[in-house]
UniProtKB/TrEMBL annotation:
EC assignment: 3.6.3.-
Name of the protein in question: Energy-coupling factor transport system ATP-binding protein
Residues in the signal sequence: none
SMART domains the UniProt entry points to: AAA (SM00382)
CDD domains in the cross-refs: ABC_cobalt_CbiO_domain1 (cd03225)
Domain of life: Bacteria
Family as reported in the entry's similarity comment: Belongs to the ABC transporter superfamily.
Organism: Alkalibacillus salilacus
Keywords per UniProt: ATP-binding, Cell membrane, Hydrolase, Membrane, Nucleotide-binding, Translocase, Transport
Amino acid sequence: MIELEQVSFRYQNEASHVFENLNLTIEQGEWVAIVGRNGSGKSTLAKLLNGLCLATSGVVRVNHTVITSESKHQVRTQIGMVFQNPENQFVGTTVADDVAFGLENLAVPRDTMIKRIDQSLEQVDMTAYKNHEPSRLSGGQKQRVALASVLAMQPEVIVLDEATSMLDPIGKEQVLSIIQELHEQLDVTVIMVTHDLNEAALADRVITLNEGTVWFDGKPREFLEKGDQLHEVGLEPPFVTKVYQQLSRQSITVTQEPLHYEELVDELWRLYLKT
Ligand SMILES: Nc1ncnc2c1ncn2[C@@H]1O[C@H](COP(=O)(O)OP(=O)(O)OP(=O)(O)O)[C@@H](O)[C@H]1O
């Protein structure tokens, strides 16, 4: 679905490259979390995927189309982006207008447009707010509307750049469960830039960037097994990993390193019943 081949990128008037000869392939239907310290290039990578940044050299392909200044508009119909701050994405005076905007640009026929607006608002559970002003919604509701605007375009790939970082735990949970549903039911490819390693553990694959290179690329469990090595790339092991490390230090055997709180609780419960 996405291929980066020998991609180098340098911002205009900057001396150093963010990426040099980066190679990466993301398959259709994968859920990939991109993690890494501040400045490691996560957002730049997200922008390279939808043509907001164009490779200085090398090739970025989305569904076999090479992203260039000519093709980027067409590519954006296949890749939906959701950013950290939904305020920057609102253009309409009502929620429905806002969701309609991208469809109007694509000249989608009116009856199809109405159907898609209703369907995407329902997917994010925001139907009741259809005629509300976006600026009066809560942060979590705004992010769900931003997600609906992307869903209405029926993209094959959704890129979320720190999309849940400004949300409270409930708002975060709601957005993540919508993503999980889309991924499972519609086989949408999800690329999620995040600082939250608990969130990254939900993905099928974790890519860790460090100084413009891929430091780790693999399953979330293998990633968390890195434990204290995560400090080398500016990351803090999540709570479940720290508990696992403490248990190991005290020679308490746990069957496998827990990925989520639920697994940790199951494991602790098992240990408790054994005593
Ligand atoms: N518009 C820009 N012009 C020049 N340099 C930039 C620009 N945007 C980012 N950079 C630089 O590119 C590098 C990568 O930045 P990027 O925003 O991709 O990192 P990031 O991993 O997303 O960071 P964060 O976690 O802080 O959001 C950094 O050194 C940053 O200073």
